[in-house]
Amino acid sequence: MKTQDSIASSKLGRAAKLVGTGAKIGGNYLKYYAKKSITGEDSKEVLHEQNANDIYDSLSELKGSALKVAQMLSMDKNLLPRAYTQKFALSQYSAPPMSPPLVMKVFKSATGKYPNEVFDQFDTKSLAAASIGQVHLAEKDGKKYAVKIQYPGIADSIKSDLKMVKPVANAMFGLSEKEMKKYFEEVEDKLIEETNYHLELKRGTEISQASAHIKNIQFPTYYPEFSGEKVLVMDYLEGLHLKEFLEINPSPETKNNIAQTLWDFYEYQLHELKAIHADPHPGNFLFQGDRVGVIDFGCIKEVPEDFYQSYFPLLLQEVQEDAELIHQLLMNIEIIFPDDSPAVKEELTNAFLRMTRLLSRPFCTEEFEFTYEFIDEIYATGEEIYKIQEVKKPTKPRGSKHALYINRTYFGIYSMMADLGANIKTGKRDWQARLWNSISAQTL
Fold first, then answer.
1. CA distance linking residue 410 with residue 408, whole number of Å
2. Given 182, 282, 346, 382, which is the most exposed site by the fewest CB atoms within 10 A?
3. 425 in the Ramachandran plot: left (φ > 0), alpha (ψ -120 to 50) or beta?
4. How far, in Å, CA of 194 to CA of 243, rounded?
């Protein structure tokens, strides 16, 4: 794979890269229309593939939040043509890495030493390269370590990158300026946190220690004595990413065991810790036998108690049958507002309940089988709901910002469950009874 000797860090340099990509895309469209006018062929698939390649090549060289947006879009498979989602999925762990000289320079700048002054062995060829940093294998005293090195200038480019992405989001999703402000503030906060390796070390240690009782899950130990602001050192975990793991044809029992571990891990984080690993793409997990290794705690969403008490009761069947309670909860999470017309309130309530009843199916039965048909139904329902005028062109920002990463997390988990063809125990958990008892006590 081609490596990079430098990464554009100035606003002008990064903007110029995106402008150049725009010119390539314009050329692709000209070729598409010229061919169509001459041959009559409507080769949209070729156009999408060319555009996807050019956009990904540009974003992967820029790294940072520009590439992170591509990664997030690759998880939302209903938003883009397949050529884009397949190409953007590479950003999860296969972006072009820094060259060995640049790796040495960044490591020295971050820690004050070269890698060979810290470790007995250090492989300058990366194991994986994603949006914020890349990982290298090192060894000291016979022990293997994974060394995550952050790309230079990434933290400083987040704000300007997101400003460049805003017009794209507006064109693609029809977001108003107020909506973009609300959600982009949340995205910006999370991306800035992801560049803080001290925070990742702290959160990774806390969550892994709290979740150590979960069967078949494994976490790396972090080593602050080797780490720094832009370098994070942890245990090296053996295992395969999901795509490679599935290619070795594991048994249905093994896939179900893995899926159950993932499900239990996320349920525990969300409902007990109120803090969740909010970046559930396949690049952040390693699979070996029945074991799941979790290797990245850069993106953690802490769930406020008031949001939790208003959002998650909506997944309960008992709550979905109580119109007055639903009305209050939807007000709490800013789906509807007191000054909305009765017609708007009814339309939005019906749309939200339709999607919620679909998403809550796994919680309503003792066991649930995740299939691609289930995922397709979620996306198809979302597309239908998006056609509602107040959803497509809202008159005011709707929905709590806290739902952004929670929804993203569950869509990611559901997709991984479908990839595994999982049939696991999902319903009748303690948190459901606790929430219903809490809601019942408040309404008495």
1. 6
2. 346
3. beta
4. 24
- Whether 403 maps to a domain, the answer reads yes
What is d(CA 21, CA 395) in angstroms, rounded to the nearest whole number? Answer: 34
Query: HSE of 432 in the Cβ direction (CA atoms, 13 Å)?
Result: 16
Domain of residue 433: give its range.
239-444
How is residue 79 written in tokens?
């938003």
Residue 206: what residue type? Answer: E
Tell me which DSSP letter residue 94 carries: B
CA atoms of 70 and 364, how far apart (whole Å): 33
Give pTM, 2 decimals: 0.80
The pLDDT of residue 7: 54
Q: How far apart are CA 74 and CA 235, in angstroms?
A: 28
**Is the CB of residue 231 less than 8 Å from the CB of residue 149?**
yes
The closest alpha carbon to 406, from 285, 294, 314, belongs to: 314
**Is position 147 within any domain?**
no
Residue 436 CB contacts under 8 Å (≥ 6 apart), including other chains: 313, 316, 318, 319
Domain count, the chain: 1
